[in-house]
Each structure stands twice: as structure tokens, then as C-alpha cells.
Design goal:
alpha/beta, 14 helices, seven-stranded mixed sheet, homodimer
Chain lengths: 353, 353
């Protein structure tokens, strides 16, 4: 038997660190200033400043899509994979989906009143963030399992869609979906304009991300690979079939689970991979190990003014979400992976700026 | 723990019935005659005779791709799913992949000589078909696990590709890949020409079918959903990462596993589904339960001269491969699913005819 499973490959340390950060969100909004850097020349990737990161992307796409190039890749093999949290949109101070799970608890309890005075639901309902932060891992799994399974896929889809269309990030008071990085949206389009199939490969829940990926990123559900649970086919009393989301883990799409998930869902090795944390390390290594030109890029969060600063540039410990450890930074440097500095490489971060 | 898993959702009865049929294959080739029916008019689906099956396909594609139609479907939602064995190519007298597994045994034993005198490998090596047919299910799983796991995905891919490029069907003395049904190849193209994404949803092994699906059916690996095992990411001594095929079942893509697999891999409901057996029943039901126009089709093997005759038209018991039971036939009739008669609806069966 597989045990009840997380929607997300978060570890407890990560979650606790994130929860601890939340109270600061009730404070005044940070001031958001446009980058001081000059606009780039040329029409490609307009939200990027000229520099080695932008150049690496353009050089790679040209080299693999020009028939005369020794690195030419036939269109059907052009696969590019993108981590989501911290790579395509903001992951701070907490993964959006974890907020969803916690906010779903009152509805789950309303349907199952017997949970009201049971832990860990009682603690979550109390709203006491410090107490929530002290919940042991097995209790967090209970919350995740209770909020992401036990309903039909249609019910889940409708709930998740409704939530994502209204939930807002406290710092910017913007929809989470508005916090997609404009430079990365341009990269996605640039790849697709050159016949690449773009995939999200996320530690987040596959069903959850599929609810908005087409609208936000232009990526259809079948090109979203994420942490996935099983479903169970059954018939309703009127004979109509339905699928129920089960608390059974099929794919933990983090770390080694990313190349494993890519094999399961795509069946061929990507030519380009974008990530931002140790959870993406194996995906980048797997991409790098293929023959020919391969693009490996890591987003470094080094812009405390316009977004957040965490990771090796700040010498922060790796207990925060999206850990970009010094070891990963060293591996990137050693192997010639390209590190994207949000501060220096991105002229604009969000579309609303 | 998940138990060692089959590459294929075959049951023992099916396999035994298939094995029992094999000796007849050493006899003279059947005579293959072209259909006596007249060619159809019009350029669409030229290997189909005019009739309700051909008309149902054309009516459906037109209704869902014409913007003025009340059944119009936006291009990004156009998903069509196809079973493989018995629907896209010949499944008689045995699933091609089972033959592959049995034929791989000598190589597996050569690499692990300790298996030579162990059952069930000893029996398979003996070539005694009656003894092979008597092997208990757990022994068959051992053969399947031993031949489809324990190697890197690259090694498996190379072996499977080499085999499928040379292995021949004894009745026609043709490559298995030449035994794709020409009328169905035309259907696949017709759907794709109208912006449908075509998927294979097979009980066969996902990695196996991916090795030839693009060449034979024009379907890329990421659009092949099949029975799938897990893989394990690791590093070779030179630091290079690789994936090993594990004897661990992730998806048994038969019966209820087909809609479950469709949800996992596509995340939306198909508009058209083609099958030929009880293993496809839930996939057709799941497709049918969606709103708007939905096409549900079953291939009936009723042409003993040009291919095989089995299923309800012949009143055969359902112990043979690809069972199309009388109960499924009744369900199709009751629910308005379209049954394709190979004998009457297909003017030509194979491209080489």
C-alpha cells in the first residue's frame, strides 16, 4: 500500500519556515519600483536586459531551430520543461497551493462536522499560525489528503478554479495568477514560436496547476506534469461514470521524481530545462546528459526590492521555500548552467508593472 | 508496496487461449483476398466503404470542427483516443508485446545464467508451448518483470526498437508494424487534419508502444498512454544520470485504468474514443458521459478471410484476446455506440494489399 500522500513535495522545515513568515504579510505593502536598467534592444524577450542569460536563451533557440546549424533539432523532438514555483511565478512566502489547502479546511469540515474538534483540523480552524506551524508532518499530510482527495475530479476542478480566480497575494494584493514572471512568459512564447513544446514540471499538484496553466502560461493540461495522486473510476446511482481523487501517491514530482515524471509523461529527454531550486537539480542534470545542445537555466532570487531575495547570493540557509543552495550554485557554475539574476537580467518582473 | 507488475493487463485465461492457438501458425499462410465491395466515393477515408460507420466519423468531425455547428469544439479541446491492439493493428493470435517478452527470455538468461535452470525461464527456454501455456500467472509475471525491467530506459528502448524493426507476424510474414489497419491510419490522419490531438490508450506497455507509435501511427511518445511501470533515477560511476525501469506498476491501463490513465496523462475528457474489447468499455463510457457530441466506436472482428473473426458476431466465448463480449455488444447497441464491421466497413485492411 502507498501511504496517504502530499499534493506537494514540501518538507516540514520548508513549511514551518514559510508559515513563520506569514504574519509580516499583514504589514504595509512593499514599494515596488521599476528596474533602473535600460531597456534592451531588439524585439526578442523585451522584458530581459541584454546579458549572458538572455543571450544563452537566444543562442540556444537559434542553434537548435536553424537547419544549417550543427545543433539542429527536428521539431518533434523540441521539448522544453519549466519548474513552476519560483521559476514561472512567485513562491514566497508560501507555495500558493499550500495556502489553498489550508483555506479549504473550513469547507471540508463543513461537509464532515465530525472533523471539527479533531486534530489537525481544529488547529487550522483556530487560525493560530504558530500552532499551525507546530503541527507534525503526519498532520500536514492529513490536511493535504483531506483537501485534495475524496471528491470527484469535476468537483475538485470547480473548487480550485473558483479559488484561483479570486485568491490574492497579500504583498501585492494581486491575483496569484498575476504574479507570473513576465520575462518567463516571453520565454515560453519564444520557445513555442520556434516549434518547442513547453511543459510545466512542478512539485505542485498536477490537477491544481492544470486549472490555470492554459490561461496563465498558454500551457494545456496535458503538458502539465506535477505531483499526482491516483483516481478511481466508479458509477453514480444514475449509471453515469465518474472519477474520484484518491489519497494515493502516483508521482512525487520533486527531485529525482522530475526526470522520472518526464519519462512517464513525455517519454523523451528535454532539450531545455528551467528551474530555481534543489528540487529541479535532477531535472537539469537529466537534460544536460543528453547529446547535442542543451539549455540549463536557474532563476536566482536576488531582488529584494521588486520580488524577494533568498538563496546563495544572500547567504541564506536553505530552510526557506525554493531552496537554491550554495551546493546547487556551485554545481551550476562548474557545469556551465546559466544562472538568471532577477535583479540584473529582468528589466520588468510582472506584467502589471 | 506495489507488487511486481505486468507490462500488460492480460489475464491468464487470455494468454492461455492465445498460446494454444500458436501451433496453427506454422501451417500454410491464409489466402488474403481483397474485399469484393466497391470503392467508396469521395476523397475522405478512401479505405472505408460507404455506410453508417464511415458516416458517423465524418459527421462527428464536421459537427465538432465547424464553427457554425451547435456541437462545435474549440481546437484545444479536441482529443481523440484509440486503443491499439485489435483497434489499430492485429492482436491475433497473441498480443505482439507478449511475443516480445517471451522472445526476450534467452537474452535475459544469457545475462543472468543463474536463471537458466529456474522456473519459469527453464520452461520458456524449452520452447514447449503447451508447458508454457500451463505456467501459473505468478510465473508469467516473473517473465514480464524480468524482460521489461532492470535495465536503463535507453537499453530497453534500443532492444524494443531493434525487435520491432525485424519481428514478423507468422500468418502474413510481414513486420508487425505493417499490420496496422489502413482504414484506422486514415481516421488518425483525418482527425489530426481537423486539429484533433490523437492519443493511443493501450493496455500494452507504454514504453514499448512509444518505440514505434510515431513511425507507424504518426503519434509522438507523449501521446501514448499505456500500462506503465516506475523508473528510478540514479548516477553511473562517471556521474552521468540514468533511469532504470523498475518492476513497480504505476498504471494498469486496462478497463477502469483507461479513464484513470486519461485523467493522469491528459487531464481532460476525450471527444472521440475507439476500442474493440471489454478492456475499452470504461474509456468509451467516460467519453460518452461528456456533454455535446461524442463519438464512441468499436471495431468488430468479423472478417475471417482477410483478418480474423472473433467476438459476438461469431458467438465465440470471451476467452480469446481482445474479447468483444455479447454484453459489450448489447451495451453498444443500447447506447448508440457505432460498431465497425471489418468485413463490411473496410474496403481494404492493410496498406500492402
Amino acid at each position: 500500500m502507498i501511504r496517504a500522500a502530499p499534493c506537494h513535495g514540501i518538507d516540514r522545515r520548508t513549511l514551518l519556515a514559510s508559515l513563520a513568515l506569514l504574519p509580516s504579510l499583514s504589514g504595509p505593502l512593499f514599494s515596488v519600483s521599476a528596474s533602473a536598467q535600460a531597456p534592451t534592444s531588439g524585439g526578442l524577450l523585451p522584458s530581459w536586459n541584454d546579458g549572458p542569460a538572455k543571450q544563452a536563451i537566444i543562442d540556444f533557440v537559434r542553434a537548435t531551430s536553424d537547419r544549417a546549424s550543427p545543433s539542429y533539432v527536428v521539431p518533434e523532438d523540441r521539448i522544453a520543461v519549466f519548474d513552476q514555483d519560483g521559476t514561472l511565478w512567485v513562491e514566497h512566502p508560501m507555495y500558493t497551493q499550500v495556502i489553498y489547502c489550508l483555506e479549504r479546511v473550513p469547507d471540508v469540515v463543513a461537509k464532515k462536522p465530525e472533523l471539527k474538534n479533531k486534530e489537525p483540523f481544529k488547529t487550522v480552524l483556530s487560525g493560530n499560525r504558530e500552532a499551525i506551524a507546530r503541527l507534525p508532518m503526519q498532520d500536514l499530510y492529513k490536511i493535504i489528503a483531506a483537501t485534495l482527495s475524496g471528491m470527484s475530479v469535476e468537483e475538485f476542478n470547480a473548487e480550485a478554479k473558483k479559488w484561483i480566480e479570486t485568491a490574492r497575494h497579500p504583498r501585492w494584493n494581486r491575483l496569484y495568477t498575476e504574479l507570473a514572471y513576465q520575462p518567463m512568459l516571453e520565454v515560453l512564447r519564444y520557445f513555442r514560436d520556434n516549434a518547442y513544446k513547453t511543459y510545466i514540471v512542478t512539485g505542485g499538484g498536477q490537477d491544481f496547476v492544470r486549472m490555470y496553466a492554459e490561461k496563465v502560461y498558454g500551457i494545456p493540461p496535458e503538458q502539465v506534469i506535477g505531483t499526482a495522486g491516483g483516481t478511481k473510476f466508479a458509477y453514480a446511482s444514475d449509471g453515469k461514470p465518474y472519477l474520484t481523487k484518491e489519497p494515493k501517491l502516483l508521482l512525487n514530482d520533486n527531485n529525482a521524481g522530475k526526470p522520472e515524471g518526464i519519462h512517464l509523461m513525455i517519454g523523451r529527454r528535454p532539450y531545455a530545462a528551467f528551474g530555481n531550486s534543489t528540487g529541479d537539480r535532477q531535472m537539469l542534470e537529466w537534460t544536460a546528459a543528453g547529446a547535442g545542445a542543451r539549455l540549463k537555466m536557474l532563476v536566482l532570487h536576488d531582488d529584494a526590492v521588486r520580488e524577494y531575495a533568498y538563496g546563495p547570493a544572500q547567504g541564506l540557509p536553505d530552510t526557506r521555500v525554493g531552496a537554491f543552495t550554495p551546493a546547487l550554485y556551485d554545481e551550476a557554475k562548474k557545469n556551465g548552467w546559466t544562472v538568471i539574476s532577477m535583479k540584473n537580467d529582468w528589466r520588468r518582473i510582472f506584467a502589471f508593472e
